[in-house]
Amino acid sequence: MKKPVMGIMGGTFDPIHNGHLIIAETVSNLYNMDKVLFIPSGDPPHKQNLKITEKEDRYEMVKYAIAGNEKFSISRIELDRKGKTYTIDTVKELNDMYPEYEKFFIMGEDAFRQLKTWKDYEKIFSYTNILIVTRSFNMTMDIHKGFDDFCSKIYVTKTPFIEISSTHIREKVEKNQSIRYLVPKEVEDYIKRNKIYINLENSNKNNL
Ligand code: ATP
Ligand code: MG
């Protein structure tokens, strides 16, 4: 019998935006996913020097953003883990929790290009496939290069090119510009209500 399929969408989500949601919905359809799990990062090692919004705020925004989509759910496994959070620990844990699922860890091309700097990156492939989605017009053809041993575990999907990033959203809020249609209405309201991003420190800028 065919295994159920799960997408894993990890991110800082500072804040979650329509780019994340469109990507998740697109791949969920293309790969007949039964479930897409959004995992807000706890203390991401690659963003140590950057000021990140309070984790409970990032969690709430994801919760609001995915409400109403019966395939989307959220996990606290990284938020509740002490210390730095590494993807290898997350996919291992997910594999224990959902052994019956075929898994696809979804990541933008920009994130994939950093993969070799991640802790035990080779072991990640023991627990999940990786699904790379387009983040620019010119996704290069050689994206698999250097990953010869893992080719069968790497999927590349041309998704609509969506020029939205959390960095741009934070900057727009700080400049008092509209973020309407870039994030779901509930996320926009949450940001306003809680006065997030109105006074960015330098370190909070340009995370992309
Ligand atoms: P920041 O600007 O703060 O880095 P971001 O927009 O890149 O934020 P992240 O939370 O860092 O968002 O991204 C989580 C995952 O979603 C990463 O794998 C990233 O590549 C992917 N992603 C984010 N935005 C897009 C987009 N517009 N198109 C495709 N993938 C995206
Ligand atoms: Mg990013």
UniProtKB/TrEMBL annotation:
Transmembrane segments: none annotated. The keyword ATP-binding applies. Its EC number is 2.7.7.18. One of its GO terms (molecular function) is nicotinate-nucleotide adenylyltransferase activity. It catalyses: nicotinate beta-D-ribonucleotide + ATP + H(+) = deamido-NAD(+) + diphosphate; P(1),P(4)-bis(5'-adenosyl) tetraphosphate + H2O = 2 ADP + 2 H(+). Pathway: Cofactor biosynthesis; NAD(+) biosynthesis; deamido-NAD(+) from nicotinate D-ribonucleotide: step 1/1. Keywords: ATP-binding, Hydrolase, Iron, Metal-binding, NAD, Nucleotide-binding, Nucleotidyltransferase, Pyridine nucleotide biosynthesis, Transferase. Catalyzes the reversible adenylation of nicotinate mononucleotide (NaMN) to nicotinic acid adenine dinucleotide (NaAD). Belongs to the NadD family. This is Probable nicotinate-nucleotide adenylyltransferase. It comes from Acetoanaerobium pronyense. The gene is nadD. The chain holds residues 1 to 208 of 396 of the full protein.
